[in-house]
Design goal:
It is a single chain. With 456 residues, the protein is of the alpha+beta class. The protein has 2 domains: 109 residues, Glutamine synthetase, N-terminal domain (Ubiquitin-like (UB roll), Roll); 324 residues, Creatine Kinase, Chain A, domain 2, CATH 3.30.590.10. The chain has 12 helices and 14 strands. The strands form 2 sheets. Strands 7, 8, 9, 10, 11, 12, 13 and 14 form an 8-stranded mixed β-sheet that branches. Helix 6 runs antiparallel to helix 8, helix 9 runs antiparallel to helix 11 and helix 10 packs across helix 11. The longest helix has 21 residues. It is globular, with a radius of gyration of 22 Å.
């Protein structure tokens, strides 16, 4: 689809983008996709050039790159960097209201030169999983929660992270969960997040203070998995921009500050019938269905093999600490926040399961895809979960992978999961993360220099 000018393009844009451009000239368009880490990659171009072209190209090497900028070699893969074809998904066109000129962001679909979806694209991985549900007459529904820290500016990686300075002139304090005055300490950042979200047409269900110093939780409404993952992708960028306006950073690291809780991306799941819209987790009389138990069983049985997707960095495993507001196992329970899998209080129509394992550092497309894939395998296998946990799950055995290396071993061993996500994606992701882990093992930490240099 091409246009003679940007004015002709207006009718295909979402309402928020139309309002943003009303009476204004579109200066620039950022044509973006998410790489394996969830980093925005792409091209920026003048608005008129964007309107007049139907697609553009990027090499597939963007999916072979580690978080440090190195490239992974994949066994049996001839690394020739062929071009991928990127076409705009017009439903994702969204303002970038922090820019000096009128700029739109547009997420692009990614296909090969024969028109087939690129299996390495995280967004395509999620689309593939959703399609597997649709093939069975189901529609998965998700509601994500985003946790992140606002921190003081830090340009020296050797210096520890500090909480931000609040309006009172004191640094944000920890252990102030749900405190309104704690949120008010960095109110200007929150105000900009609200303003940017409104300009972008993004709906926020609520914002609250979490347990860490400067830690915020932002809740999104429930809906289509791809749309919600798109929104998280946009939200991460927008929140960073809002923080920079007020002399602080927003970080989505799983565990940025020692001694503080980590940041999660809890995902609430339900599944509806495509034909009727009914929640398959609830029977006509409002009781729990076998499918509800099967979904929980799938999460329990298969989540260990996708922890490498929902906890993708060495830092991610610092979050899974006993008695530290994060799960340490795959127990499940009703209204029990110590379990990795929690059944929230809800009526029959809203019955759902909350996966509390994903970290906020994961790629949102891959985090949601991994969790849905586990549930789908559970629905297919029709097995029962373990007994419900009614006491503290922190008293139970810690049975999650202890680090990225162990998680990658489990990831590459689960052939059933590979068939759901796509075997080629699994192979490339494993190679990229293995290289990242190898690079990390070459780094000598301050702890090692302090305690081992002269003592061993």
């Amino acid at each position: 689809m091409t246009f003679n000018n940007t004015a002709d393009m207006m009718d295909v844009l979402p309402e928020a983008a139309q309002l943003y451009l009303s009476g204004q000239t579109l200066d620039e368009v950022e044509c973006i996709v998410a790489d394996l880490a969830g980093v925005a990659r792409g091209k920026a171009m003048p608005g008129l050039k964007f309107a007049r072209q139907s697609h553009f190209y990027l090499p597939n090497s963007i999916f072979f790159q580690t978080i440090t900028g190195d490239w992974a070699d994949v066994e049996g893969d001839d690394f020739t960097e062929p071009d991928m074809v990127l076409t705009p998904d017009w439903d994702t066109a969204m303002p970038a209201p922090w820019t000096a000129d009128r700029t739109l962001q547009v997420i692009h679909n990614i296909d090969d030169q024969d028109g087939n979806p690129i299996p390495l694209s995280p967004r395509n991985v999620l689309k593939r999983v959703v399609a597997l549900y649709n093939d069975r007459g189901w529609q998965p529904v998700v509601a994500p929660e985003m946790e992140f820290f606002l921190v003081a500016p830090n340009t020296d990686p050797a210096r520890e992270i500090e909480p931000p300075m609040g309006r009172s002139g004191r640094r944000a304090a920890a252990r102030q969960a749900y405190s309104m005055s704690a949120v008010d300490e960095y109110g200007p950042v929150i105000d900009d997040i609200y303003d940017f979200a409104e300009a972008q047409g993004l709906e926020i269900d609520g914002i609250l203070q979490e347990g860490g110093a400067g830690q915020v939780e932002l809740n999104l409404r429930h809906g289509d998995p791809v749309k919600l993952a798109d929104e998280i992708f946009y939200f991460k960028r927008m929140i960073r921009e809002a923080a920079l306006r007020h002399d602080c950073y927003a970080t989505f690291m799983a565990k940025p500050i020692a001694g503080e809780p980590g940041s999660a991306m809890h995902i609430h799941h339900s599944v509806t019938e495509l034909a009727t819209g009914k929640n398959i987790f609830s029977a006509a009389d409002g009781s729990e269905t076998p499918e509800f138990m099967h979904f929980i069983s799938g999460l329990q049985r298969h989540l260990p093999s996708v922890v490498a997707l929902i906890a993708p960095y060495v830092n991610s495993y610092r979050r899974y600490v006993r008695d530290f507001a994060a799960p340490i196992n795959l127990d499940w329970g009703r209204d029990n926040r110590t379990t990795g899998l929690r059944v929230p209080v809800a009526d029959a129509a809203s019955r759902r399961i909350e996966n509390r394992l994903p970290g906020m550092d994961c790629n949102p497309y891959l985090g949601v895809a991994a969790s849905l894939a586990c549930g789908l395998l559970g629905l297919q296998e029709k097995k029962e979960p373990t007994a419900e946990r009614t006491d503290s799950a922190y008293d139970a055995e810690d049975n999650l992978p202890k680090g990225l290396g162990e998680a990658l071993d489990l990831f590459r061993e689960n052939t059933a999961m590979a068939e759901v996500l796509d075997p080629r994606f699994v192979k490339v992701y494993d190679a990229v993360k293995t290289l990242e882990h190898k690079e990390f093992l070459q780094v000598i930490s301050p702890w090692e220099r302090e305690h081992l240099l002269l003592n061993v």
